[in-house]
Amino acid sequence: MGLQAGQEGIYITLDESPEQILSEAAEMGWEDIRDYVRQERLVFIDASGKQFSDFIKKELADFVREWEGSKARIVVDPLTPVLWSSQTKYEQRDLVSYLMREAKKMGTVLCTLEEHGTAGDLSTLETIIPMYISDAVIHLRYVGRDGETSRMLKIVKCRSSRHSHRLHPYFILRGPGLVVQPDDEDRSGEIIAPGKLREFYKRRVAVLAPDRRGRVGERTWADIDRIIDHLSKERIEGIELSQIVSLILQEFEIEP
């Protein structure tokens, strides 16, 4: 969504290679991801073969000066090895604080963390320092229920914002990506078959006010059409397709 909206992206990877990440993104339905790399709107920093902590200490300041004020979206995936490279928790805190403070000058920072303790335990050294420093924390986990395992999401903190404290089911779907299931009161309740998805989508768009339809660019409509095509081929359980269409239209600010 950020790249589609004209923003730039910086992806700092400490595990997978940039080529692997691009291939996985294409498999998720984002076939144009390499176009953004060629346009230099998406930049990768492959830190998998080096001490990223050294980069933070020695090169980050110069990198920030080049990108400062760009309002880019920065990903550090994962942050955990950076913490492991520090000898003490005081060094960990100083390093992560400096990284966050400097990276915020470029834009919004998203860091992923690994869990290596008891499932759901957010009090380990790998998590507690980044959680304290961050403005927002979202916890993704697996929850077993009635013999089945579901993906669940919870907002642990979000500074200066009211937010849900409940566990919410989420899905990773080809096309839209990560989809969080709405609360019960927000569900449309309409059940549609995958083969009828495009017809349902067209009906939803047709009832929009002309001025709302007209202010959406052709590129945005093309992006949404591609998402709908991917969803039509997905076997989806646990969330109604009508709910996903509503979320997509809201994400692109087509529906309130």
Structural account:
The protein has about 260 residues and is α/β, with parallel strands linked by helices. It has a domain at about 1-135: P-loop containing nucleotide triphosphate hydrolases (Rossmann fold), CATH 3.40.50.300. About 40% of the residues lie in helices and about 20% in strands. It is built from 11 helices and 8 strands. It has helices at about 20-25, 35-40, 50-60, 60-65, 80-85, 90-105, 125-135, 195-205, 210-215, 220-230, 240-250; strands at about 10-15, 40-45, 70-75, 105-110, 135-145, 150-160, 170-175, 175-180. It has a 4-stranded parallel sheet with strand order 2-1-3-4. Strands 5-6-7-8 form a 4-stranded antiparallel sheet, with no helix packed on it. Helix 6 (about 90-105) packs parallel to helix 7. The radius of gyration is 20 Å and the shape is globular.
Short description:
The chain is an alpha/beta fold.
Report the CATH topology name of the domain at 1-134.
Answer: Rossmann fold
Order of helices and strands: EHHEHHEHHEHEEEEHHHH
Beta-strand share of residues: 15-25%
Helical content band: 25-40%
Give the low-pLDDT segments: none
Please tally the β strands and state the result.
8
CATH architecture of the domain at 1-134: 3-Layer(aba) Sandwich
CATH class of the domain at 1-134: Alpha Beta
Overall 3D shape: globular
- Supply the CATH superfamily name of the domain at 1-134: P-loop containing nucleotide triphosphate hydrolases
**Over all CA atoms, what is the radius of gyration?**
20 Å
Mean pLDDT: 88
Distance between the termini: 17 Å
Q: What characterizes the major β-sheet?
A: 4 strands, parallel
Summed up, the helix count is: 11
Strand line-up in the sheet with most strands: 2-1-3-4
- Given helix and strand content, the structural type is alpha/beta
